Amino acid sequence: MARIGVFVCHCGENIAATVDCEKVAKACAQLPGVAYSIDYKYMCSDPGQNLIREAIKEKNLTGVVVAACSPRMHEPTFRRACAEAGLNPYLCEMANIREHCSWVHPKSEETTLKAIDIVKTIIAKVRKNQPLYPIKVPVTKTALVIGGGIAGIQAALDIANAGHRVILVEKEPSIGGHMAQLSETFPTLDCSQCILTPRMVEVAQHPSITLYTYAEVESLTGFIGNFVARIRKKAKSIDEKLCTGCGECVNACPIKKIPSEFNMGLGTRPAIYIPFPQAVPNKPVIDRSRCTYFRTGKCRFCESKCPTKAIRFDQNDEVINVQVGAVVVATGFTVLESTFFPEYGYGQYKDVVTGLQFERILSASGPTLGEVRRPSDGAIPKKVVFITCAGSRDPAKGIEYCSKICCMYTAKHAMLYKHKVHDGQAYVFYMDIRATGKGYDEFVRRAIEEDHVKYIRGRVSRVYERNGKIVVCGADTLLGAEPVEIEADMVVLATAGVANPGAEELAQALHISYDRHRFFTEAHPKLRPVETNTAGIFLAGACQSPKDIPESVGQASATASKVVALFSRDELTREPIVAVVNRCAPPLYSTCVGCFMCQTACPYSAIEREELRTRDGTLVKTVARVNPGLCQGCGTCVAFCRSKSIDLQGYSNEQMYAEVVELFAE
Amino acid sequence: MKEFEPKIVAFVCNWCTYAGADLTGTSRIHYAPNVRVVRFPCTGRIDYNLIIKAFERGADGVIVSGCHPNDCHYTSGNFHARRRWIVFRTLLEYIGIDPRRIIFSWVSAAEGAKWADLVNKAVREIRELGPAKEFINMKQWYEFEKALGGFRG
């Protein structure tokens, strides 16, 4: 027979003001299996916890019910107290008579009766509780960082500098990400590449970092501390050990007119290429979809020019499996193309460019070598119109959110344009100016006051071409919606930051969640901003939502600290709230019928097939088995199971039915 | 005559609705005292046999509530619950339960006021439906069961 102790807390006046706690304790003392029942002013206080500890020892309790606040508040406190007194902590449960009773009902007989009901159901549950033991799992102290932009670079360096191994996977031929494309950075106007490239080199040279560029993560299996990642290293068509990065092959390639991804289509590159001069690794790859040899079977000019004979046309993609303990997802974002905007000419006007394209125009390593020249005829534009919120904060475009970085980079663009074209005029159409960072508002003011950028509050209704000029029609809402028409030489759209193409597929491969804009979802927007709901997978940078560089770096370091904390232990303990599949004596072995409905229900792929064999090895049947390391304890499988063979520890069928039945017991 | 006070059981998930109901308490929003909460890790865990069991034993109504679609702590448990509910609903009339006695809702951890509204609405609606009579004959069976040595699952 169970010997349950019931401890009713007054919580000062919080519970006692509306619930008659003494009456609750007395009513519970009458229930079967209750050996001890008492009320006390503050159960969570030291004397309160002592009361529980002593009662466990003196009354030889086999279960504890604390009727107090929400288990979300103090369950760990009381379970610890029970463990200290030698009782298995999972034999202790809380009855929530504060949040769910005393705080939401007036002082009355009925409120006390409800409190008794609540405690009664938990007593019924505890009668069926079983001792449980935390699950221990080992930790592989290697981190996988997906994405080699500034966030991925920072996370990789921080983890590696803490003494752990890191595998950094980047899908492009070089690490660097969007930050490598930027000209200068706000609010200091320091050169983006100058601060980034040393970090890139550090990654490449770090003894603890293994860098896989031109590679993608295809799948991730396993669980926290014990993941296995499948990485596809796309064929670069060169032998990286032999290649010196001299660039002879790049010069030899006859195909020269491929739009450069790095220059956002404004420049060109050959079929064998190094994306940009400071690329890390500084070795070329062959774009097989464009290479003449791969398309027609003839050419091989690059091979003939290569002094070290490093070209490998017969190279295949290589798929490797790596074991990692934690994953940092830092896959970044992209910007909407100007073709997305009918009102701005669907991208058909060459001189209507996106913010990222304008970065390349401003960049010293860009297609115009840092001179501001417009794409159509190479002329220096004398009037440039910047349009912010192109797509952002526009429910009609399906993007309700603010892309966050555009206000700042538009101010920077306008300022840099004015620094380079002194007689030029910059106009900015804006909805609101959001400059909420350290030194940010001062930066915008500087653009307006020192560089005389004309800010016009209003939206642009139409952009069209007239006599070689691009006419921007808008309204100035601060002048009573006065129509404004500007004949510009060039238009820059601060297009919305959006999730990368392929973000959904990656999220599904990693089993992490994403929102309707395909940005990855954090575990808690305030208190767990860098964790995902999948333990051991963390988020850094703009794959979670648009972010500027300081924020991405800060978040990356935060993920690194989470990973390092995880790696500081040799094994992990997890709550034993996991599902188990029935096993019993021969000849049945298990009541599981092997329908594997549970397998289709499980969001964590935690259900495995296990062959049950007799001692001499004869196969009896194949049944389900739960991998306790993978199981997160949702219990969806339990509701699915046709033969009631799978059960969730801590929320077992017996416990749940007992709770429901107790509610209506006479 | 005293108004009929329905007995309602709420099956809620730990991460959203239970936390939402906690917030109702923290915000001191008062609501009808007719509901008893049973906490599950996830709405996906809720076996519909449990709902039938509640009605068998004398519940007048049942609330099932969890995280909003896409917000599930376990990624997809609430989708399973929703899909199961669609099938289950078509069976309800067959077993003799008025589908209006089951209220399915999403209440997030931030929706304390919504929980209070949900409970009040459930109590109001089920009060109009009157006491559940469908399983009234089960009482004798349970007395028989009790004589045999109590509830066995």
Could you characterize the architecture of this molecule?
The complex is a heterodimer of chains A (666) and B (153). Chain A has 666 residues and is of the alpha/beta class. Chain A folds into 5 domains: 4-127, Rossmann fold; 142-234 and 317-332 and 500-567, FAD/NAD(P)-binding domain (3-Layer(bba) Sandwich); 248-305, no CATH class; 334-498, FAD/NAD(P)-binding domain (3-Layer(bba) Sandwich); 579-649, Alpha-Beta Plaits (2-Layer Sandwich). In chain A, strands 10-7-6-18-29 form a 5-stranded parallel beta sheet. In chain A, strands 20-27-21-22-23 form a 5-stranded parallel beta sheet. In chain A, strands 2-1-3-4 form a 4-stranded parallel beta sheet, sandwiched between helices. In chain A, a hairpin with a 2-residue loop joins β24 and β25. In chain A, α1 (21-29) crosses α5, α2 (46-58) packs across α3 and α6 (150-161) packs across α7 (192-205). The longest helix of chain A has 19 residues, at 109-127. Chain A starts with a strand and ends with a helix. The mean pLDDT of chain A is 93. By secondary structure, chain B is an alpha/beta fold. Chain B has one domain: Rossmann fold, CATH 3.40.50. Chain B contains 5 helices and 4 strands. In chain B, strands 2-1-3-4 form a 4-stranded parallel beta sheet, sandwiched between helices. Chain B is globular and about 45 Å long. At the A-B interface, α3, α4, α5, α17 and α18 of A face α1, β2, α2 and α3 of B.
